Amino acid sequence: MTIVSLHRRDAFPTKGRSDHNPGETCDRNPGSGDEKSVAPGRDDHARFARLVLPHLGDAYSLARWITGNRTDAEDVVQDACLRAFRAVGDIADGSARPWVLTIVRNTAYTWLRKNRPSAVVVVEDLEGVEAAQATPGDPDCETPETALIAKADASRLQAAVAALPTPYRETIVLRDVQGLSYREIAEVTGVPIGTVMSRLARGRDRVIKAIGRSEP
C-alpha cells in the first residue's frame, strides 16, 4: 500500500549555475575546493558522475524531509556529495542508490546533532522504544482506510507526513516516495527489517488518522 502521492524527485539548484540538468546538485569536481580531500583517482570523477549524480534528486528529497528545510537540505546534500566522492571507489555499481541515501541520511543526522541537538534526542529516544517494541507485520496490506488516503489531496498528505516523528517520516519517504525495498530501508537506516515494517505501519496509521481529523 503506497500512500504518499508526492514528487519523487525535487530539483536542487546548483549554486551559481543556471544551465544544470534537473537533480544535478553538485560540482562535477566536488573535491576541488576541499583541501582535506584525498587526491582523487583517475576514474573517480567518472564513477561519481555515473553512480552518484543520477540519485541526487532522491538524495535532496530525503534530506529535505529529514531537516524540514530546503536550504538546510541543500547544505546536507553538498556535504554528502563530498563524502560520497571520497569513498566512490569503494562502491559496487549495482548498489549505488541505497549507498548514496545512506550517506545522505547519516550526513543529515550529523547536521542535526550540530544544529538541532534537541531534535536528535527525540529521534534516538523513539528509536530505542521501536527497537524494543518492533512487531513485524505487512504494512502494505489493503485496509478500509486506503480509500481515505486515495482521496486525500496532496497538501493534506504532505502536512500529515511532515508532522510524523522523524523515524516514521523517513521510513515512509524511503518506501513510498523513493520506492526502496524493506531490505534496502533496513540498510539505509541501520535497523532490522521488522523495525522498518513496524515504523511503516505506525507511520501510515498516524497519517491516516491525521487526514481523517482534517476532513471537512
In short:
The protein has helices at residues 44-51, 56-67, 70-87, 96-115, 117-133, 146-151, 154-162, 166-177, 182-189, 193-214.
Q: How many strands in all?
A: 0
Task: Identify the overall geometry.
Answer: globular
CATH H level of the domain at 119-214: which superfamily?
Answer: Winged helix-like DNA-binding domain superfamily/Winged helix DNA-binding domain
What percent of the residues sit in helical stretches (DSSP H or I)? 55-70%
Rg on CA atoms, Å: 18 Å
- The structure class reads mainly alpha
pLDDT averaged over residues: 75
What is the makeup of the main sheet?
Answer: none
Q: Under the CATH scheme, which architecture of the domain at 119-214 would be assigned?
A: Orthogonal Bundle
| CATH topology grouping of the domain at 119-214 | Arc Repressor Mutant, subunit A
What is the top-level CATH class of the domain at 119-214? Mainly Alpha
> What is the beta-strand fraction?
under 5%
* Helix-strand topology string: HHHHHHHHHH
Q: Spans of 5+ residues with little confidence (pLDDT < 50)? A: 7-24, 31-39
Q: Report the end-to-end length measured between terminal Cα atoms.
A: 24 Å
Separate helix tally:
10
Describe the fold and architecture:
The chain has 216 residues and is mainly alpha-helical. The chain has a domain at 119-214: Arc Repressor Mutant, subunit A. 61% of the residues lie in helices and 0% in strands. It has ten helices and no strands. Helix 2 crosses helix 3 (70-87) and helix 4 (96-115) runs parallel beside helix 9. The model is unreliable at 7-24 and 31-39 (pLDDT under 50).
